[in-house]
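Recall that a protein's primary structure is simply its ordered list of amino acids. Everything else, from secondary elements to tertiary packing, is in principle encoded there. The following example makes that idea concrete.
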Amino acid sequence: MKAIQVHVYGGAEVLHHGDFALPNPGSGELRIKIEAAGVNYIDVYHRTGIYAVNVPFVPGVEAAGIVDALGPDVSDFKLGDRVAYAMQMGGYSEYSIVPAWKVVVLPAGVESQIGAAAMLQGMTAHYLCYSTYVLGREDTALVHAAAGGVGLLLVQLAKKCGARIIATVSTDEKAGLAKEAGADEVILYTQDDFEKETMRLTDGAGVDVVYDSVGRTTFEKGLDCLKPRGHMVLYGQSSGAVPRIDVQTLNSKGSLFLTRPGLDHYVRDRNAILRRSHDLFKWIVASELDVRIDQTFPLAKASDAHRYLEGRKTKGKVILKP
């Protein structure tokens, strides 16, 4: 089979496309013929060693396709099922081995590209709105990178919760996408200071929660956008790691809450995966949630897909196709 493998941490050029032996599923596992694999920032963190994994490895933690082989002790799936999964390495490949408990069957009418695009980023948006900080109609949320893969889903789900949404984006085109997704206000951070604009838009009160996937360039100013007892939800670091913080700062800025969540801690068992993915696919089928595919790259061009992602150019989901 063809796959991408990383032999040494580094830039996008370390993503090696080559031939590898076809793997066989073990007990409780499925082999999935991959039709679409999601490209996510966690893949960059794995490639660069920010999140250390043993080399060599096949990157990619999200994909969708067809069940091709069943390991022993698998009873909930059959050959030919159309499925998707997240939080399992090996997606940048023609075939992947996945524990069955992490896999969900795709509803009729949901194609593999949408399945791959919805799992990791969709479940991330879901836990951010419904678990990390439970958004309600009285809340105002500041959403950074609102036109990215997670951002567009997060804005839609935050709107479904009834919250007021202030979005930050870099271009007019992205501002339009954020507005279409449901953002009430959009700040072009390339033209205006997002802290000043956020405080102006809230009459100096600040927001209840900041959803920050950017990190270093937004974190400290984001803290100053929060109301007393507001929540800073730092769920990524596309611009780099945030500076070290004295916890007394959280007190002096208004008894703030700070969390650094990750999806793996919100989908630790099958029930959580089924609950979150069921909501997402129910809304997708009902046309209540739009999953935007931005760019599709062939598997062999995984390096180009990473460069596109790291260039902060995304306007939705980036997909690899074997």
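The chain has two domains: 2-120+264-321, 136-260. The longest strand covers residues 29-39.
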